[in-house]
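Quick start: read one record
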Amino acid sequence: MKRIIVLSLMTCACLAMSAQSTARKFVLKNSTDGQSELTCYLPQNPTGRAVVDCPGGGYSHLAMDHEGHQWAEYFNKQGIAFFVLKYRMPKGDRNIPLGDAYQAMRTVRDSATVWHINKEDVGIMGFSAGGHLASSVSTHAEYDARPNFSILFYPVISMDEKVSHKGSCVNFLGEERKTNPKLVKEWSNDKAVRRHLTPPAIILLSSDDEVVPPVTNGVAYYSSMRNEGNECTMHIYPTCGHGWGFRDAEHGFPYHEQMLSDLTCWLNHVKAPKENAVRVACIGNSITDGFGIGMAPVKGYPAQLQKKLGNGYEVKNFGVSARTMMNKGDIPYMKELAWRDAQAFDPNIVIIKLGTNDSKTHNWAKGADEYRQSMQEMIDTLKALPSNPKIYLCSPIPAFKDSWTISDSVIVNGEMPIIQKLAKKNKCGFIDLHTLFNYKDMMLKDGIHPNAKGAEKMAEIVFDVLANDPQPIQSGKASGKKTSSKAVKKSNQRR
């Protein structure tokens, strides 16, 4: 779907705001037929944060007031821009509401400068079926439409009508649900949560909800998020069933003030990177992913690197377990969503650590040339990005055991010479993790994966290389400035 921004409406809205400080509400068309609309509430004192709201209604209608417009003042008082999405009903075609939600997210980000919004601080909120739509965007959308955080009220999560809200399932999937169990599974969003890639979420619901069973929906999403190590918070209120939205005690929801307090506390906890933060992409296999480390998104090496670099940097983990650099390997990294996400992130710095799985007997049989060519392809793709990133090639850490036929000999004698030559040829940085990470006592029992202490040590090694690199690093596009190695050190000193 084409990105639709009605400039005339925006211009009129801006003029109205200039003439009258309280007139900060305006409406934009969100679809070519004009039936989807985005009602915009811009705060007087913006913090840069924004929330796109998807009201509920079983995918048959929309509860636009208590699950929509009534929330505007709450968010605007906190300096948060608020957008109420009037999405079209699917009538069996799920792409209709999905397209409206994707378009709304893109419109907010496309208009970030005009509306004083930080593109990396745009969340989505949804109620009931709107919660399913919000969680669908969180789990299925491409990077540019995926939110940075999710707020889910008593959400429909499962598309299995036996354990969910039947009307929502029927309306969203249509008749195809009866003959296509894969489709039901695909859009049951507890089964679509992706490690590192699905954004942090808060779930708020009632224990006695008889419309959308909490255990097989909201609780199931929380469990999946927690199992993947992603950040997720849940608040369960004892009574009041389904559909309370912004209603207060007088209108049937006695926990209204407590709910607002819970939500506010969580919003204050979710920190966004600075708008001009230096973007760091960590590309790799299970060692980058954080295999075997509990809460790897918090304790893995990219997360530890983030702590060391400070809030002037935005470090993202694009590691995927078991992947190879080789495009002809058993599970190539460059065929993964994480690779597409890493490019869409438009990083200023890229740290590539792939090769451990390539050393397996059946993979290395493809040949050293395949390894070389695939790595060169990755480098060429990254060099072509608008951000023109500084690329660091890492040698794999030592394989202290030959688990899964992983060979340290192949890493040392086969891969490392290639990595070093390519680093020199392409003017990339080189991080010799194989030499610098000689900590057998910081490994899991398999001898392949670092434990939490090992991940911290890896982060320390990478940080030291970044901090001492004499070549300046391009910062975020919005600032147009450069960040040198001295700035990295200063950032660390301020922590």
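The radius of gyration is 24 Å.
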